[in-house]
Specification:
about 600 residues; alpha+beta; about 25% strand; globular
C-alpha cells in the first residue's frame, strides 16, 4: 500500500539570534501575557451585608470545590507511539513574535493534512473546507455510507460530516480516511489520495479558536497533565505550519489545563503568506501531536456582537429538541439575553427548532461541537469566544431551570429577575446557585404538559450547584468543572439566596435511560463502564445497564413541590406542548413554599 513521503528529519531549530534576525524582516507587535492565579473558592459577603456564616450552607459546600483531572490513561495516550524529539528549549511567557522559532522548509515540522477521525461506535467524522450537498463517505475498499451534515465548526469554519464506517473497511489497516463526495459523483472513478485516519482513542489535537486579543485556543485530548494547570510555563509548544509554503514556527504555550492550551498567535511571517495554517502542539522533547485543527487569520464571527449582553446562557445539547422550547422560553422571560447551544451531534432536527424560536425574536444560535466527551472544553470555548458579547454567563443544562420560590406571588415574569441575581459588587466573579433534584414524580413517559409542570416531586436535600460567571473574571486557563470556573486573582465567589436550580434530573425512564449512551464530560465515566459506581453523577443504586429498576416512577420523591408547576401555569399557560400524561401514584411530603438548604449532602 502506498505511503506518505515524510520530509527529512528535523535537524535543528534556528538559534534565538537567528530567529531575531528573521523577525527583523517583519514588523512585530508586542504582547504581554498577564497570568494571575485566583482562589478557586473564597466565600464573600451576600448583598445587604449578610456574612456567609448566616447562610445555612452544608459544610461540604464551604470547602473549595475540586477540579477532577485524572492522569491520562493508556487509552488516551499511546505510549508506544514513536516520537521524534523536538529540541529542548526553556519556557517563558511569550512577549513578542521574536519568541517564535522558525524552521527552514527542509527542516519544517511534518504536519500532514489530516481531515478524518474514527469516533466511538464506528462513526467517522470528516472535515471539509467547503460544504458538500447530499454527501457520502466513499471508502478505499469500495464501500460507501451516507454522510450527515453536522454544521460549520466555529473558528476556522470547516464543515463537519459524520458517517458510519462499514465493517469490511474496519479490517483494512492502517485505517484510511474516506473521501467526502456528493452522491451524484461516481465513487468508483474517484481518485483516492492515501490519507491515514486518526483514531479518537489516541491523543490528538481536534480544534482551535481565535480570540479577540489575538490568542489562539488549541483543543487537545490525552495531552495535558493535571499538574500543568497551575504553572505559568507549561512544557508545551504551539506549532504552526503554513499550508501554502510549508514554513513552520514554534512558540511556547501560555497556559495548559484540561483539554485547552492557550497559545500566542502565529508570527506575521506565516500569516502574511498563508490564508490557512495547520496548528498543533508538542510536549517539550516530543514530536508534534497529530492534528485536525487549522487556523485562519481572521477572527471567528461567533465572537462578534453588536452590543454586550448582560446575561447569556450556554449549554451543550444532543437530541433535546422536545425539551428546548420550554427551557428557552422560560429563561428568555426571566432575562437571558442570548442563548448558545453547543450541538454535540443532534439527530432530532435541532436546526428547525432553533429557527422557529429565532423567528419569534429570541436571540439563540447553535455551535457545531461534534467532539466526544469534551464538555469542559466546549464550555471553555463558549466562555472565551463570547467574552466580548456577554457580561455574565450561566452554564446550565436544558433540564435545569433557574427558580426562586418567592416568585410564586408574581403574576408574570420579568426580564429584571435574573438581573437582580447578578447585581453584585464588582469583585464578585462567580455566583453559586444551589441545585435541587426532581424525580420521575409518577411519570411513566415524557409529560406532554412539559418538564416544569410534569415533574413535581424532589429530594429534600441540596445536590451540587451551578453558577453565573462574570466572563471578565475567568482565569486565562479557562479551567472549569462544568459547575464553576477558576477565577483570576482579585475576584471571589459567593452563594446567592435570590435563586436556585430546579434540576429535573431523574425523569421518566423512557427519557432517563438515554443517558446510558454516553456522558459528555471528559472526566465522568460512561454509565456502562463498571467504574466509579458511587459517583454522584450516577443515579443511586443504578447498575451499568439501561434496565429500568423496579418502582422507578416513584423514586427520588421525598417532598411534593408544586410551586414551579403552579407558577409556570400562571405565566405561560397549561403546558408548553399539549395536555395529559401517564401517571402512577406514590407517597411523599407536600411543599408549597420556601426551602431551607439541607445541613449535609448525601
Amino acid at each position: 500500500m502506498p505511503k506518505h513521503h515524510r520530509p527529512s528529519r528535523l535537524r535543528r531549530f534556528l538559534t534565538a539570534a537567528g530567529a531575531a534576525s528573521v523577525a527583523g524582516l517583519v514588523l512585530f507587535a508586542g504582547r504581554q501575557a498577564v497570568l494571575s492565579k485566583g482562589p478557586i473558592f473564597s466565600p464573600g459577603l451576600f448583598p445587604g451585608g449578610l456574612a456567609v456564616e448566616n447562610w445555612p450552607l452544608p459544610q461540604e459546600l464551604l470547602r473549595p470545590p475540586t477540579f477532577l483531572f485524572p492522569q491520562p490513561s493508556e487509552a488516551d495516550i499511546d505510549f508506544a507511539l514513536p516520537r521524534r524529539l523536538l529540541p529542548l528549549r526553556p519556557h517563558s511567557p511569550p512577549q513578542h513574535d521574536a519568541d517564535a522559532v522558525f524552521l527552514p522548509e527542509s527542516d519544517a515540522v511534518f504536519l500532514p493534512d489530516l481531515d478524518a477521525v474514527l469516533l466511538p461506535d464506528s462513526e467517522v467524522l470528516v472535515l471539509a473546507d467547503e460544504p458538500v450537498d447530499d454527501a457520502i463517505c466513499a471508502f478505499q475498499g469500495g464501500a460507501s455510507s451516507p454522510a450527515r451534515a453536522l454544521g460549520r465548526l466555529p473558528g476556522p469554519g470547516r464543515h463537519a460530516y459524520v458517517c458510519t464506517m462499514p465493517k469490511p473497511e474496519q479490517s483494512i489497516q492502517p485505517l484510511q480516511a474516506p473521501l467526502l463526495l456528493s452522491s451524484s459523483v461516481d465513487a468508483a472513478a474517484a481518485d483516492f489520495p492515501v490519507h491515514t485516519m486518526l483514531n479518537w482513542r489516541n491523543r490528538l489535537v481536534f480544534d482551535s479558536a481565535v480570540l479577540d486579543g489575538g490568542d489562539v485556543l488549541v483543543f487537545a485530548k490525552g495531552v495535558i497533565r493535571r499538574q500543568w494547570a497551575n504553572t505559568a510555563n507549561p512544557p508545551v509548544q504551539c506549532v504552526y505550519r503554513g499550508r501554502a509554503d510549508g514554513v513552520s514556527a514554534s512558540l511556547p504555550a501560555i497556559t495548559a489545563a484540561q483539554q485547552v492550551v492557550r497559545c500566542p498567535p502565529p508570527p506575521a511571517l506565516l500569516t502574511s503568506s498563508n490564508t490557512q495554517l495547520r496548528v498543533t502542539l508538542s510536549v517539550t522533547g516530543e514530536e508534534p501531536i497529530p492534528s485536525l485543527a487549522t487556523y485562519r487569520p481572521q477572527k471567528s464571527d461567533l465572537a462578534v456582537a453588536p452590543k454586550r449582553n448582560m446575561i447569556c446562557a450556554c449549554t451543550m445539547v444532543r437530541n433535546v429538541s422536545k425539551f428546548l422550547r420550554e427551557w428557552v422560553m422560560y429563561h428568555d422571560a426571566l432575562g437571558v439575553d442570548q442563548f448558545f447551544l453547543y450541538d454535540n451531534g443532534s439527530e432530532d432536527n435541532l436546526a428547525a427548532k432553533v429557527a422557529e424560536m429565532r423567528s419569534t425574536g429570541i436571540n439563540i444560535s447553535t455551535v457545531a461541537w461534534p467532539w466526544t466527551k469534551t464538555q469542559e472544553a466546549g464550555l471553555s470555548h463558549c466562555a472565551a469566544v463570547h467574552q466580548t458579547s456577554c457580561q455574565w454567563m450561566t452554564f446550565i443544562d436544558v433540564d435545569e431551570f433557574i427558580f426562586n420560590p418567592d416568585w410564586k406571588i408574581l403574576e408574570s415574569p420579568s426580564k429584571s429577575m435574573l438581573e437582580a441575581v447578578v447585581s453584585v459588587d464588582p469583585q464578585i466573579g462567580q455566583i453559586y446557585l444551589p441545585c435541587f433534584d426532581f424525580g420521575p414524580s409518577g411519570q411513566t413517559a415524557h409529560p406532554q404538559e412539559g418538564v416544569c409542570q410534569g415533574y413535581t416531586c424532589r429530594l429534600k436535600t441540596q445536590q451540587r450547584h451551578k453558577s453565573f460567571v462574570r466572563l471578565d473574571a475567568v482565569e486565562p486557563s479557562l479551567q472549569n468543572s462544568v459547575h464553576h470556573f477558576s477565577l483570576k486573582s482579585g475576584f471571589t465567589n459567593m452563594w446567592t439566596k435570590l435563586a436556585r436550580i430546579n434540576h429535573y434530573k431523574y425523569q421518566a425512564w423512557t427519557e432517563f435511560k438515554l443517558k446510558f449512551k454516553r456522558r459528555v464530560s471528559a472526566y465522568v465515566a460512561d454509565w456502562t463502564d463498571p467504574v466509579n459506581l458511587q459517583s454522584s453523577d450516577r443515579a443511586p443504586g443504578l447498575g451499568v445497564e439501561a434496565v429500568e429498576p423496579p418502582g422507578w416512577a416513584d423514586k427520588f420523591c421525598e417532598v411534593k413541590d408544586t410551586v414551579m408547576q403552579e407558577l409556570s401555569v400562571r405565566w405561560f399557560g397549561t403546558g408548553f406542548g399539549g395536555h395529559g400524561s401517564s401517571k402512577s401514584t406514590g407517597s411523599h411530603e407536600t411543599h408549597t413554599g420556601d426551602v431551607a438548604l439541607s445541613p449535609s449532602l448525601p
